[in-house]
């Protein structure tokens, strides 16, 4: 490949040539995760009651995330205290009770028909394996459960270590994973509230959504 070929296909060099007025995405200036291009959310009041209930469950989990994040911010000044430990454990209980059951309902009731409708509508990957937004959501469900398990296990191990320095290292790792879990859940719920539920409202009939609500 010579220099002229590289100049033609290299997206960074082409973006520089086109200038700042060029439209389109650039690897040097990717879109914000919470502001994807073409986002057209539907106000909760206009959603089917079944989808609106799923969004309300997100709101309750968001409150728990806000509380956990506030407590984790105290660690920088106060260190890992009993209050922090109890707050993390309370959040994990809420996560296990609310998020896990919420995810199972989505995967069993909403996601299978929506996945097929997205494919029929052409909203899927172009690779050899066909994937949709539903596959991304299911993957994030699994990742969230794995992260929560890591946090719980690290906290348990850290509390049992007799060596104080080792305990601090393990507990510090647990809190970093808790921060990763917070970030993952916030982005996941944003995507469902603003993209997935809007797609379901558009692609699924009222009768189908009514049937899901009854299940």
Task: Report on the architecture of this protein.
By secondary structure, the chain is mainly alpha-helical. It has 2 domains: 31 residues, no CATH class; 168 residues, Four Helix Bundle (Hemerythrin (Met), subunit A). The protein is 75% helix and 0% strand. It is built from 7 helices and no strands. The termini are far apart. About 4% of the residues have low confidence.
What's the gist of this structure?
With 215 residues, the chain is mainly alpha-helical. It has seven helices and no strands. The protein has helices at 3-9, 11-18, 49-78, 82-120, 133-160, 164-203, 206-214.
The CATH class of the largest domain is Mainly Alpha
Q: Which whole number gives the mean pLDDT?
A: 86
Q: What value does the Rg take, in angstroms?
A: 22 Å
Uncertain residue segments: 9-16
The number of distinct structural domains comes to 2
Tell me about the largest β-sheet.
none
């Amino acid at each position: 490949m010579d220099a002229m070929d590289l100049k033609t296909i290299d997206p960074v060099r082409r973006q520089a040539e086109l200038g700042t007025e060029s439209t389109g995405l650039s690897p040097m200036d990717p879109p914000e995760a919470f502001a994807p291009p073409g986002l057209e959310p539907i106000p909760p009041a206009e959603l089917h009651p079944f989808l609106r209930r799923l969004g309300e469950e997100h709101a309750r989990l968001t409150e728990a995330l806000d509380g956990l994040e506030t407590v984790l911010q105290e660690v920088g000044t106060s260190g890992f205290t009993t209050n922090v430990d109890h707050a993390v454990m309370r959040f994990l209980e809420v996560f296990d009770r609310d998020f896990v059951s919420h995810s199972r309902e989505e995967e069993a009731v909403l996601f299978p028909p929506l996945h097929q409708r997205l494919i029929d509508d052409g909203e899927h990957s172009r690779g050899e394996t066909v994937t949709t937004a539903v596959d991304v959501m299911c993957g994030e469900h699994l990742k969230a459960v794995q992260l929560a398990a890591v946090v719980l296990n690290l906290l348990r191990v850290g509390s049992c270590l007799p060596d104080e320095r080792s305990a601090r290292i393990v507990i510090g790792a647990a809190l970093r994973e808790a921060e990763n879990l917070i970030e993952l859940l916030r982005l996941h719920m944003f995507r469902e509230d603003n993209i997935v539920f809007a797609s379901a409202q558009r692609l699924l009939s009222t009768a189908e959504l009514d049937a899901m609500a009854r299940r």
